[in-house]
Write a structure and sequence with these properties.
Shape: globular
GO molecular function, one term: ADP binding
Number of strands: 29
Number of helices: 23
Keywords: ATP-binding, Cytoplasm, Hypersensitive response, Leucine-rich repeat, Nucleotide-binding, Plant defense, Repeat
Family: Belongs to the disease resistance NB-LRR family.
Protein name: Disease resistance protein
Organism: Gymnema sylvestre
Largest sheet: 17 strands, parallel
Radius of gyration: 28 Å
Helix content: 25-40%
Amino acid sequence: AYDVKVHNIPQSLRHKVTRASTPRIDDSVLSLNDEQTLIIDRLVGGHRQRDIVSIVGMPGIGKTTLAKKVYSSWTVVHHFHIRAWCCVGEVYRKRELLLEILSHIIVLRENILGMSGEDLEIKLRQLLLKLKYLIVIDDMWSTEAWNDLQTSLPENENGSRILITSRSEHVGLKAEAHCLRLLSDAESWALLQMKIFDGESCPKELIEVGRKIAKKCKGLALSVVAMAGILKRTDKLENLWMDIAKDLISQVVDDPHEQCRYILEQSYKFLPENLKACFLYFGAFPEDQEIPVKKLIRLWIAEGLVEKTWLKSLEELAEDYLEELIGRSLIIFAQPRSRGGLKACRVHDMLRYFCRLKAKEDNFLRLITMSNDSSWSLDDLYFLVNDNFSNPSSHQTYEDYRLCFYSKRNHFIQSRPSGTLVHSLLFFAINDMYARSSYDISFIFSNFTRLKVLDLELINIGPSFPIGIEHMLLLKYLAVSGDVEYVPSSIAKLSNLETFVLKGLKGKVNLPDTIWDLKCLRHVQVTDVAIMSLNGTRLSFHGSGNSCLLDCLVTLSTLFIPYRDDTINMLKMFPNLRKLGCIFSESLDHFGSYNLFPRLDVLTHLESLKISYTGRALSAAEFIFPLSLKKLTLSNFRLPWSHISIIGRLQNLKVLKLLSNAYDGEIWDMVEGEFHNLNFLKLENLNVSKWNASSDNLPNLEKLLLRNCKHLEEVPSSFVEICTLKMIEVKWCGQSAEDSVRRMRDEADEFLNIIITSDFELSL
């Protein structure tokens, strides 16, 4: 390694690294120390000119895992001024990648988020020109994408490096390629034991047969993990393992693709019947993107893949399904929710390929890629869908049950596909150009008359809903986006609608009075703001058997709530609501006085509440929350800290997020006996400077996140005494707060994870 003299860089930046940008590493991965050392030596050694190193190998061999371990190594962290990680995948979106790289380097202010791709490229080049940087570009598919992207990364003589992972040798040839080796038999056995026994020793009677199974995986890490999923769910008996080993051994072939396919077939065969369709559904989602769990679950339910029982809700059952798939090593845990459970998941490339192949064989799902661009004729894509390419200029009729389109928006619209037997239509855009252009999708409602699922969230439908949507009487799931300001009253004819997602690109969206007629609605998600009106001539809030109640509604966001006399009555229309996102606005009553915050205790089943306030600063707010509340997010109320006790007395509250001046004031004195059951606390963009608290004030805290609290002097040192505390993350706070957490690190035990990310922005 060597030192580079960097001129014209602020002194405070020269020894800082972006620690929080490190991707999370799966604890179950095995050590590849020899490979890791080789890559690190290539990155930190050699000449001073910018250099490019690539890790090349087949899907599932461990390219990304190795890159993550290199990226997070002590040597690399302390060698480079700046590190950034981005993932390309089969769909190349240059502007998104530039933003992803920039997010690791600077705080993305609104002026940067609004920049064009060309301006972002100029900004990135200016930031990196005089720095010793490391940029990791994960899963690069095509040489065309690589040739385009590398021009955004400036060449300098500071020892900068670019690390690429790719399954394509053609991409690797453009750099100093390192072909990743397969696992040895010993490494495969070590990984198999780790996945099955969670670090415990393997019983002696299973060692011999276990080694045989590991050896037959022939060094492919994914094969080992998939096999472990089967064995973990099998009784730990030698004869049962021998039966699996015999069947496996007799049919394993030398070709790595075929071998892994067979092992995945085994994993699939051992799935309960109710999970097989759910697993194959992952084949619909794009590669290298985290899958939002709430969207996945709602699609499963709308597709009828979740079997209803009396013991749990459909959403709870679907979460159980997903956890079962994760437990079988078929799906990967990506992001946790703040109050437990899953926020996002992902599927490994090879498993995703298997899902597509199996879905095609079983006529479960058909993928159509529309393109007249030869750059999409990639070997791996051809392997999957070689007969599913469609010319966008041709009109084609489909007879499949489920269709998933990968296409440019204009190609999809021009093709005007049809299919009277199609029940589900999903669309994923493969190009982000002209994303704001509006398109007429009215042909869908005449060409696909039996749809139950329609996901066009990535297409701008324009300023109004298309004509004919009222004829989609079977529709259960509808997701659209557009410059829509009003939803037509005819939507009430969609009597089977369960999930309604509308991304309003102009901000406020007015929902019609007839929305109250959609009795099957379970989830309504409108961004940025949904305005629901109450028509007094239609609604009566007295007596029993109110016909306007939305009994099934469990999720509603983002609802605009101006305080009026009938606001509480409107909230009573959602008796079973569990999750609410809303914006509260002050308003004047008949006497010219400003009204207080509405009572929310009428929502007796509410568990999650996210609420933001618009209006004058409040000197007081009479919060009346339901006792059932478990998660609370507040923004912009600017209340004095003395009023936080109302929240602190909520006995079931597990998660609290105070954002963007939710509370205002320099001193927060915590009171004993409050927040007794709080597990997760996030403070962001607050002006508090003195936080007077002890470990007794948050006895069950597990995670503490502090972001952009510039004035905070220190984090209470006694927090290290909280026995449940697992993580403290301080991001973009002041030097004093960072130093206090560093001192805590010296006193903390090995189980407390402390992450510190400094806030810096380069002046140009």
